[in-house]
Amino acid sequence: MDYIVYAIPVFILLIATEVIVTVVRKKDYYRFSDAINSLSAGMISITSGILTKVVSVTIYTGLFSVFGLWEMSVESLWVWVVGFVFYDLCYYWNHRLGHEINVLWAAHAVHHQSEEYNLTTALRQSSSGFIFGWLFYVPMAVVGVPAVVFFTVGLINLLYQFWVHTRHVPKLGWFEWFFVTPSNHRVHHAKNRRYLDKNYGGVFILWDRLFGTFKEEDEQYEPIRYGTLKPLRSWNPLWANLHLYAGMWQDCKATSRWQEKLTLWFRKTGYRPSDISTPMKMPDIHAYENYQPTVVRPLMVYTAFHFVLMIIATLALMGSYHLMPMWFNTLWVVVFIVQLVVIGWLLEKNQKLVALEAGRFATVAAALCITHQQLAVPASLWGLLCTLAVVSLLVLNRIQYNDSRQAHLQKSQEI
């Protein structure tokens, strides 16, 4: 079982607390669809991690056993302290180059796509970072940091980063000099020109001060705009993970130069071959509104209900996948991705809402049929699921009908 499953309820409680504080303070730090999209990306990340974490584990343990200069003792406190600091240094370079190299940014950009900055942004994680991320931690394996130390301090590092994704905490005095805080991490997520590509540390901000990438938040400067310079403008969490790879692949096919085909992946972030594009210019980040397709309140309620069911299902999968065969986990990860993609489409007001939702329920039903021996689904639960599907489709159809009728009436009044 993945220990992160114990942290998920805590994350949800803290997010709910931040939402309440936001409402009480009359701030606009949350938007429903944006938060759902961030959480969806995070759910895809942790569930797909069931399948991909074996890559990281295998590579690290293999490098440790073959190239490790010596084996440090896990019983020594200094090994854990050194491992924790060493991990954060490696993370700094992983994070920094993730902003500076095309193919690494394609993975990391997912975390920056939200145009809001709140605790749900912390959970908006990449599903493809495992492809190259392991490279930056090779030094730890070579010097002999045991695997149990490596993965434990990595988890602690990740958990620490959750709390810094908030706009409610001001600057923290002397703490700002040594540690990553909400203030200096807000700078990192900003797309204002003066803040771009700064403050990469995970726990310690000292690396940024040492390597010249530190920037202090200036509260007198123009308001921070969050997100990426080229906005995603979609609530599809799968496309959020794939769209930059797709763009580079299109450039690879379009360019006539073989050198470009091979190297564009590893060039500076944003680079495109000169025979198909001109260099990207800094856009006016204040010239457009944040992406927010209108969603009627009944559809929000409907989506929220089914999203809560997805959270419960995610907890169940994360708590039991170690007991199931790989084919079972693979199937359900795919099913979960389908569920979250459709939920994203609902929030974009696609005209085929009922058909999409019917397809989503059909996907779950098919997966339950295939895995019924492992799950041993009782007949009563089948009946409940069928009832839920039918009622949901009827409710969604009514929501869509009322919305269309209201839009028609408004159009008639305008005429």
TrEMBL record:
Source organism superkingdom: Bacteria
TM annotation in the entry: 6-24, 44-70, 134-160, 299-321, 327-347, 379-396
Residue stretches making up the Fatty acid hydroxylase domain: 80-213
Signal peptide: none
Recorded topology in the membrane: Multi-pass membrane protein
Short name of any one Pfam family annotated for the protein: FA_hydroxylase
Localization (cell): Endomembrane system
The entry's keywords: Lipid metabolism, Membrane, Oxidoreductase, Transmembrane, Transmembrane helix
UniProt cross-references to InterPro entries, sorted A to Z: Fatty_acid_hydroxylase, Sterol_desaturase/TMEM195
Name of the protein in its database record: Sterol desaturase family protein
Organism ancestry: Bacteria, Pseudomonadati, Pseudomonadota, Gammaproteobacteria, Oceanospirillales
